[in-house]
Amino acid sequence: MNDRIPDAPPVILPVTAIDELARPQWSVMIPTYNCIAFLGDTIKSVLSQDPGEAKMQIEVVDDCSTDGNVAALVEALGKGRIKCFKQKQNRGSLRNFETCLNRANGHWVHLLHGDDNVEQGFYQEIENLFLANPDAGAAFTNFSFIDGQSNKLDIDNPILLKKPGIIKDFLFKIAGRQLIQPPAIVVKRSVYETIGSFYAVHYGEDWEMWARIASRFPVAYSPKNLAHYRVAYNSGISHGSFLSGQNIHDIVKVVDIIQGYLPVSHQGKLKKEALIYYAIFCIKVANSLLLTNKEAAFLQAEGAFRMHKNLRTYYWMYRFYLMHLLKFKQVQKLVKSSI
Q1: Where is 86: in which H helix or E strand?
Q2: Adjacent-strand bridge partners of 222
Q3: pLDDT digits (tens, 9 = 90+) for 185-197
Q4: pTM score
C-alpha cells in the first residue's frame, strides 16, 4: 500500500512540549484541501464561539491547496488568532488528518474539515457531554447535511437518544452503518494516542475510526442539531470515489475491519446489515449519477449488486434500470424533436 494510505493506524504521540497545566482544553484542527470557497464559513463558525487562546487552539492544516491562498484567508479572518500550517507537499487526506492530530495540543480534539461548519453552542454542548460523562472517549451531536450553497438537505438522519447521554451498545449500532459525520464529533486526544490515527481507506475512514473508538470507549451523544456536513457539490474525496467506484471497495474493506471489533456472536448479522444498507446506498448514488455520468452510475450499480444480493437490492436495482430506460427514452424524444 502506498504512503498516502497507511496500512496500520499511524501513531499519535503524546503532548510533551507543553506543561500539562498550560495545555488548552480544546484543539480545533481544520484540515483543508481545495475547498477555499467554504473555508471562510468554517473558520467563522469556530471564531464565533472562541473562548480564547488559553482555552482553545485553532489551526488550519493545508494539504497544499491549489484553489486559492489559504494562509491569506486565515490571516484575514483570524487576524493572528489562528495558526496556519502548510504541508511541504500534498500528503493526501489521511496523512493530513494525522498531521492535525499530532499538532493538536488540547485535551479534546475537534477535526473540523475545511468545507464543514458548526452551529452556535456546539462547543458548549460537547463540553457539557464530557463533563457529565467523564468516561466517554468521544462525544458528538446530531447534524445536518448541507449542499454547496449551505442549504440543508432532506436526508434521513436518525435521532439516537431523546436526551444527552451515553449511547448503550453503540458499537453494535455503528457497525451496521455510518451514524456520525466528522464535524459533529470531538475525541479526547488521549484516545487517539491509545488507538492511533485514520488508515486503510480514503472513503469510510471516519466510519472505521468511530467504530474503533466505540469498541474501546463509551461514546456520548446529544440530539441537538449543531453541526453541518457538506455534500453534493461535485468535489472532494467522496465525489471522486463515486466516479471511480473506489467507494465500493473501501466500504467492503471497512465492513471487514469492523468485524474484528465485534464479538463473534454479532459479526455475521451486522456484516449482512451493513452490506445491505450500503448496497442500497450505492444504487441510490447510481440513480443520482445517471444524467451526468452514466459510466460512473453503472460502476455504482454493478458494485452494489456484487456487495449484496437480496430482495431489497433486487428491488432497488430494478428501479435503477427502469429509471435508466425511462431517461434514455426521454433523451431519444428530445433528439427526435430537435431534428
Answers
A1: strand 83-86
A2: 141
A3: 999 999 999 999 9
A4: 0.91
Q: Tell me if 190 sits within 8 A of 106, measured CB to CB.
A: no
Q: Report pLDDT digits (tens) over 204-236.
A: 999 999 999 999 999 999 999 999 999 865 666
Cell numbers standing for residue 315: 428491488
Domain segments of the chain: what residues?
Answer: 20-231, 237-338
C-alpha to C-alpha distance for 6 and 216, rounded to whole angstroms: 21
Q: What is the pLDDT of residue 287?
A: 83
- Residue 170 cell numbers, joined: 453503540
Task: Please spell the DSSP secondary structure of 91-144, one letter per residue.
Answer: --HHHHHHHHHHH--SSEEEE--TT-EE-TTHHHHHHHHHHH-TT-SEEEEEEE
Q: Which CATH architecture has domain 20-231?
A: Alpha-Beta Complex (3.90)
Cell 442549504 belongs to 151
CB count, 10 Å around CB of 203? 21
